[in-house]
Amino acid sequence: MSEELLYAGKAKSVYRSDSPGELIVVFRDDITAFDGGRKDVLSRKGEYNARVSAHLFELLEEAGVPTHFLRLEGPARMRVRRLAMVPLEVIVRNRAAGSLVRNYPFESGEPLDPPLIVIDHKDDARHDPMVNDEIILALGLLGRAELDAMKALALRVNGVLLELFGACGLDLVDFKVEFGRDEWGRLRLGDEVSMDSMRLWSRETGESLDKDVYRLGTGDVLGAYARVAERLGLEM
Ligand code: 5GP
C-alpha cells in the first residue's frame, strides 16, 4: 500500500487517504488477547470484522447514530471520517460476563436490567483502568454534557444491536465502543463494532460466537466469526 501509515493498533492499521478529512482503516488478520500476551494470525479474520462492522455502522447510521463509516473499499479496507478520538472504551453490558464476573460478585450470564455502562481509560501502560464520571471530568476528557451524550449514544447502539442480534438468535451479552469528535466537534461512533469487541452467545446452545473463543481457546475462532456473518445475512 502506498498510503502513509499513521497508526498501527493490535488488529487494525490506519492510513492517510487522498482526502484530508478521511482515513483508511485496514482490518488485519492479527488477533490478540491478554493485553497482547497472546497473538496469532487468522486468515480472513480482518475481512469478517470489516464486513460485519460496515454492516452494523450502516444500520446504526440509519437508526440515527452518527458514525465514522463512509464505505468499504476492499474486503478488509474501510474509508472513514477522520475523528479526534476520545481515549475511552465505553462498555455496555446486558449480562454479566468477563471482567465483571472476575471483579465483582455477579453470576455469569446474570441479566443486567437496565444495562450497565462501564468506562475504561484507554491507556495500555496502565492496562486500561476503569474510570468513573468524576475521573473523566477531572482528566478533561469530556465535559458533563458530552459525557451524558456519549452514554446516551452507547445505549442507543445497544438498543439497535440487541434487536438485530436477537432476531438472529444471538444474545448480545456486552460490547465495547469508542467515540471521537468530527471536524465540527460532534461525537461520532468510531473504531469498530465487530466480534473482536463484543460477546455474542447462541440462544440455542449458549456457545460463544466471538473473541472469547480465542481468549478461552475453546474452538474454531474463524468458524464462530463466519457464523455471525452468516446469521446477519452477509455473503462473504
Ligand atoms: P471485559 O471487561 O469483560 O473484558 O470486556 C467487556 C466487553 O468489552 C467484551 O465484549 C470485550 O470484548 C470488550 N472489550 C473490553 N476491552 C476491550 C479491548 O481493549 N479491545 C476490544 N476489542 N474489546 C474489548
Give a description of the structure:
By secondary structure, the chain is α+β, with helices and mostly antiparallel strands. It has two domains: 5-81, 2-Layer Sandwich (Phosphorylase Kinase, domain 1), CATH 3.30.200.20; 84-220, ATP-grasp fold, B domain (D-amino Acid Aminotransferase, Chain A, domain 1, 2-Layer Sandwich). It contains six helices and 15 strands. The protein has helices at residues 45-62, 99-103, 133-138, 144-167, 212-215, 221-231; strands at residues 5-8, 12-16, 22-27, 30-33, 38-41, 69-74, 77-81, 84-85, 88-95, 111-121, 130-131, 170-177, 179-181, 187-189, 198-202. The strands form four sheets. Strands 1-2-3-7-6 form a five-stranded antiparallel beta sheet. A five-stranded antiparallel beta sheet has the order 11-10-9-12-15. Bound molecules: guanosine-5'-monophosphate (5GP). Residues 89, 91, 97-100, 128, 174-176, 196-199, 211 line the site of guanosine-5'-monophosphate (5GP).
Any descriptors?
236 residues; alpha+beta; Phosphorylase Kinase, domain 1; D-amino Acid Aminotransferase, Chain A, domain 1; 2 domains; five-stranded antiparallel beta sheet; 29% helix; binds guanosine-5'-monophosphate
Series of secondary-structure elements, N-terminal to C-terminal:
EEEEEHEEEEHEEHHEEEEHH
Counting H and I runs of at least 4 residues, what is the number of helices? 6
Helix percentage:
25-40%
Q: Major β-sheet, in short?
A: 5 strands, antiparallel
Q: C-alpha Rg, in Å?
A: 17 Å
Which strand order spans the largest sheet, edge to edge or round the barrel?
Answer: 1-2-3-7-6
CATH-defined fold name of the largest domain:
D-amino Acid Aminotransferase, Chain A, domain 1
Domain unit count? 2
- The proportion of residues in beta strands is 25-35%
CATH class of the largest domain: Alpha Beta
The unique ligands bound to this protein are: guanosine-5'-monophosphate
Ends distance: 23 Å
Quaternary state of this entry equals: single chain
Low-pLDDT runs of 5+ residues are none
- The total count of strands amounts to 15
Taking all residues together, what is the mean pLDDT?
97
